[in-house]
Structures are given as structure tokens and as C-alpha cells.
Amino acid sequence: MQxxxxxxxxxxxxxxxxxxxxxxxxxxWRGMPPGNTGQRALVQDLCYGVLRHLGALDAMLEPLLDKxxxxxxxxxxxxxxxxxxxxxxxxxxxxxxxxxxxCAVLRAAPAKGLVNAVLRTFLRRRTELQSASERTEVARxxxxxxxxxxxxxxxxxxxxxxxxxxxxxxxxxxxVNARRIARDACLERLAAAGIAARALERHAVVLDKPLPVQxxxxxxxxxxxxxxxxxxxxxxxxxxxxxxxxxxxxAAPGGKSAHLLELxxxxxxxxxxxxxxxxxxxxxxxxxxxxADIIRGDAADPDAWWDGVPFDRIxxxxxxxxxxxxxxxxxxxxxxxxxxxxxFAQRQQAIVDALWRLLAPGGKFLYVTCSVFREENQLQxxxxxxxxxxxxxxxxxxxxxxxxxxQHAGQILPDAVHDGFYYALLQKT
Length: 429
Ligand SMILES: C[S@@+](CC[C@H](N)C(=O)[O-])C[C@H]1O[C@@H](n2cnc3c(N)ncnc32)[C@H](O)[C@@H]1O
What we know:
By secondary structure, the protein is of the alpha/beta class. The protein has 16 helices and twelve strands.
């Protein structure tokens, strides 16, 4: 366990300093002996666990330190051990012993005494420390204070539920390839393989317990893909039909492009600015036996890649703060700054303004984010409608978007089976 703790220390240190979580985790895995899946899973759990509960862990750690820690690696190690003591079934004495041994792995042997003393004091004073930590909101919700304030203003009744949902474990949801297999047949295949699952809306199936994709029957053959239920609403909403010209303007890694192609025979152009992510569009479509024109380009500068023929349908799944998907990406909570919101809003405006003129009259335009902040959602669409007299809002189906106060129309809030997403469907008159 001490090796996993030490590896998690390294990943957390870099992620909390602003590096990309997925890349850092992948790099740590590459450094482990092949086939050591148990250790990989443990490092992943320690990193996710600390990032999910960071506010509470720090509130409990702070009173245990007599003086400021000079070595940030020790802070990560203590956070990790507290997470294990509070949220996992690991035996407390083993957690403490291994954390002490991890000091040697980290070449910080002189800190063994400190780590031992802090963790043993925590075990003695656990109840008192836990209840004291409930007093601050950052500790109670494990989100930065600015984030909590913003949600409180925008969702006075729902903000606590949104924050709590943002710290849950995300379920593994599959999209059944409608071209290849019916949802019930897919459920039967899963049941035959001993995998408990249930149907959600349309083509979505959620597994009771997450599994590596290689173990999911039909994944390799392209019968199913991994995609959250909220994200699966995009393709049916866009209502693309056979023969249409369709643009997916921010397409990578291709989840929604693939879903569009599974639903109709269209000519799809998939654009994205990021070459590495664009490569994943190709591999995803290849696995599913689908094809699109894949173009590296800036959605805000279509003159560089557009052939001048208007599109019947446009999907703008724009870059955003990703504030609706913190349960999948808990690092976002600590890496985002409040000033990122207007920055993303500006990029979104530039993309939407550039794309609107690419839409054919009568065509439909679907704007999507995985954010819960109004500045990236309702306010963007209000602006677009104000600036473009030929833009008209199309009502979303009531069964998927139940009545919400006007300022929340189109917003899916995160819950047990949905990521937080925003949808607005527009038509050019
Ligand atoms: C939310 S993700 C898209 C997810 C994708 N639609 C899917 O379902 O798999 C946003 C994407 O926008 C891309 N992006 C950001 N700015 C862009 C721009 N100006 N032009 C094109 N793509 C951009 C990012 O590289 C990222 O892949």
C-alpha cells in the first residue's frame, strides 16, 4: 500500500499544481509493472478520493499540525491517509503503518514521526475533528467557497443537492448502438455475462457496478459505447435525418458524433481544434464502423475549413468549465478559478457567432455544455437570440426536460444517473 500512497502523492502534487489529472494518472500507470491492476486501481481511488473530499480532509488536517508543513508531499500523504481512514475499509493500523513507510519511499524518512503522530492523534480525536470540520461550507461540501456562493445565488433551492451530487461516484452508462442491437437485447447479453444493469432513457443502459470496458460484452465489436445519459440526449434532439449535411463543431473525442451516425445516414463533418483528441474521434468511429469528414480546425474561424455549403444541422458542444461533471473530474473543483467563467463565455460566444451563419434556413442548431453556470448556458442563448433575428428557440421534449423555472430551462442538474448538462435547441427561420 505504501507504494500506491507514494504514487498518489506524486499525482496529486502535480494535479493540484495545475497539471492534467487524466494524463498524470496515465503516466503513473505507465510507471507500474504491467498487469498490476490492483495497484493501479488503488492509486486511482486514492487520487479521486482525496480530490472529492479535499475540503473536509484539509479542515481535519489543519488542527493536527503544530506548524506549517514545508514539504507539500507530506500534506498529500496525510490527505491520502485521512481519506483512507474516513472513506475506505482499509484497516486503520495498516493505513498508518504504510503511510509511515511511504515516507521512506518518498525519501522523507525524517518525517516518519510526524506522520505517525498526526495520524494517531486523528484516530483518537476523529469524532471531535469531524464535527468541527462541518462548520465551514468548504469542508461540508468540499467545493471552493466561490463555487458554493455562485450556485447558492443561481439555485437557491437546489445548490446543496448539486454540490452533493458533484461528489458522488459516477455510474458507468452505456449507449447502445441503435444500428446494431436493441436495448433489451443488449440488457440480455449483459445479464448472460452476469453484469447487472438497467435501462435508462432511449439508448442508455446503466451498470450497477463500473467495469473495465474490455469486460463489457459487445464493446470491442461496437455494439455499445460509454457515454453518460445526459450526453446521450444530444443526438436525438438534433433530429438529423438521412442525407442531411451535419456539422459537429467541437467533436472530440467523438461521443456525440458517433451517436449521430448511429441514428441516421448523414454526411457528418466533425471538427475539433485539438489534434490528440481528434485522433480519438477517428478511433472511436473506426471501432463502431462509422465514417465522417474529420477536420482539425477552429470552430470560431470556419473560413479556414468550411466549403461554403450550409449545414442542415449543427451541434455546438462548446468548451466550458465542466462544472456539471465534477464527479467524473473532481480535479476541476480545485483547478478552476472564478475568472475562468467569463473566459469560457467569451470563447463560447466566438464559436456560436461564427457557426450561426453556417446554418441553412430552416436548419437546427443545438448548443450544449456540461456546465451548471448560467453565464455559459442561458445567458449565452439569450444573447444569441438577441443578436440574431433569424434565430428561434425550439421547445425541448417535456419528458426529458421537465418544467423548470424559466431561468433554468434546458438545464439538467447532476443526480445519481445524470451529469450536469445544458441544452438549447434553435432553428433558423
Ligand atoms: C465538450 S468537448 C466535446 C465533446 C464531444 N462533443 C463528445 O461528445 O465527445 C469540447 C471540445 O471542444 C474542442 N474545442 C475547444 N475550442 C475549440 C475551437 N475553438 N474549435 C474547435 N474545437 C474546439 C476541445 O478540443 C474539446 O474536444
